[in-house]
Amino acid sequence: MNSTDSALGDGRIPLEHWLIGVSLSSAALIVICLYIPCIMVFLDKDLRSFAAYTFMLHIGVFDLIQAVMHFVSGILTIVPYGYPTHSFDWIVGGMAEAAWQGYISLNVVLAINRFLQMAMPTRTDRLFSSRLIKLYILLAYLYMLAWLIFFYSNTCKFVYNKSIYTYHFDFSMPGCGLASDINGLLILGTWSIAPKYITMTPYHYFAISVQMIIISGSNPLIYLLFNP
Fold first, then answer.
1. What is the rounded (10 degree) CA torsion for 139, 181, 86, 194?
2. Rounded to two decimals, what is the model's pTM?
3. SS3 letters across the chain
4. pLDDT given at position 122
């Protein structure tokens, strides 16, 4: 038993948990603070007449949801919260993962929009009319909702494990194997394939959690840098 396990066993909060918990919450809070002014700008009526800004507005909503959930994960790392008693973290984890799924789907639509705008601008108006833009956004939210229902059912849960400082699938539940496979296809191996070939330590998973927060924060940083 290492010092961290010993501290957890007698109810003390290890210094390591304090450092990592504060790091996660601080990084997430920075993302939230960066994103709020961007969201306020995207709400401008003139900007919302452009497809790209409309998509970026709703991508921002997905990003903010994830950032808030990662902020909570930092708190869960610090407080005396015993794993594997998942009395609350599955709600937060399910919301974070469902928002990520919605974020990915709408980013794909935005990428297609930008490609068509440059390569085939004459077709952009047909594929991205005002009505179709609303439909694409609605489908992204419905896709997120479908994952949310899935995670909030008794089929699968996405929980926070403070021993490795990240959210993960609860493979004791029947539907998590399939959900993990779908998730692995979407992220091309960093999360699902790498552990099969290298020994993953808690710090590897902590790095993945930080990477998730940085990805969420990259959009507002780019917006603010190139739109002073």
1. -120
2. 0.77
3. CCHHHHHHHCCCCCHHHHHHHHHHHHHHHHHHHHHHHHHHHHCCCCHHHCHHHHHHHHHHHHHHHHHHHHHHHHHHHHCCCCCCCCCCHHHHHHHHHHHHHHHHHHHHHHHHHHHHHHHCHHHHHHHCCHHHHHHHHHHHHHHHHHHHHHHHCCCCCEEEECCCCEEEECCCCCCHHHHHHHHHHHHCCCCCCHHHCCCCCHHHHHHHHHHHHHHHHHHHHHHHHHCC
4. 84
**pLDDT exceeds 70 at position 188:** no
**pLDDT tens for each residue of 69-95:** 999 989 988 887 655 555 678 889 999
Q: What CATH number matches the domain at 15-226, 3.30.390.30, 1.20.1070.10, 1.10.3720.10, 3.90.850.10?
A: 1.20.1070.10
